[in-house]
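Hi R.,

Here's the input for the MTE complex you asked about:
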Amino acid sequence: MAADSTPRILPTEITPERVYERRREFLTGSLALALCAALPARAALPAWKKTTVGGGQTANSWREITSYNNFYEFGTDKEDPAKNAGSLRTRPWTVSVEGECLKPRVWDIDALTRAFPLEERIYRMRCVEGWSMVIPWLGFPLAELIRQAQPTGKARYVEFITLHDAKQMPGQRWPALDWPYVEGLRLDEATHPLTLMSVGLYGRELPNQNGAPIRLVVPWKYGFKSGKSIVKIRFVERQPISAWMAAAPREYGFYSNVNPDVDHPRWSQARERRIGEFFKRKTELFNGYSDQVARLYAGMDLKKYF
Ligand code: MTE
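And here is the predicted structure with MTE in place:
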C-alpha cells in the first residue's frame, strides 16, 4: 500500500521554474488589481526632500504626536481624536480654492499632493494651552498654491475651512464651536515661506487625528491657527472671524502669535511644557521664529493685535 499511495506526477504536469515565476507575477498582478478595484484609489505620497527650514531640536515620537491631540470635531479630550477619528473618510477628498483669485480650482487631494514639491520640515509647535511639541511635518509651502491661484488685488486675507459633516465628525453634533472650524491668515502670513500645507508626518500620510488628508501649519502662531482637514481655501477682502474668535473674542484674537508677554486672560503664556519633558521651558516670542517673521508685524502693538 505504502508505495502505491505516492501520487504519480506526469512529467508534463511539472511546471518549469520560469513559467512558475511568470505565473506568480501574473497572479500577484491580478490580486493587486482586484484589491485596487475594491479599495478607494489612494496614491502613495510622492518623493520628498528634507530641509533645514524651521528645523532644530529633537522631534517628539510618532506616538506622542498622534495620541495627544486637539481636534474638537472628534471630542474635547486629548485622547478623543485618536480614538474617534477613524470615522473620517479622507478619499475621495477635494480642496476648493476660491474667492478673490483669477484661477479658482477644485483640487483632488492626490493631484494637489503631486502638484507641489513635498518637503519634510521639523517645526516647533506651541498650543495655546501651554504645551508644545516638535513635529516632522511633510508638506508644501502654501505660497506655491497661492501663486498658482493668482489672488486679485482685493484679496487681503485667506480663510481656511474644515469639513462640515457630523456623520463623519461626531463632535459636530454638539455646539462646542460654531461649525465648521474656520481659521484665517493675512495674505502675507499665508505666503510666508514657513507656512505649510501638510499632508504627512514622519514620512507617512497624516493620521486622521492630526488633520488628514491636509491641514495648515503655521509654526509661529498658537496651534489652533493650524486648521485641520481643510476643504476650502478662500481669498477674501475682510479679516475672517475664526471659530475661536467667535467662541471667545476676549481670549482668542485673529493674530494669535506665540508671545510670552501677552497672557491669555485666564493663564500666563510665559512658559510651556514640551510633551515628554519634566521641567517647563521659557516660551519664545513668535515661538522662536522671530528672525523670520517679526518683520510681518513691524510697528504693530502686539498687545492690541493679540
Ligand atoms: N482644526 C480643527 N478643524 N479642529 C480643531 O479642534 N484644534 C487646533 C488645531 N487645528 C483644531 C484644529 C488646536 S487647538 C491645536 S493645538 C492643533 O490643531 C493641534 O494639532 P495636533 O493635534 O496635530 O498636534
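One thing worth noting: The first helix runs from residue 17 to 38.

Cheers,
M.
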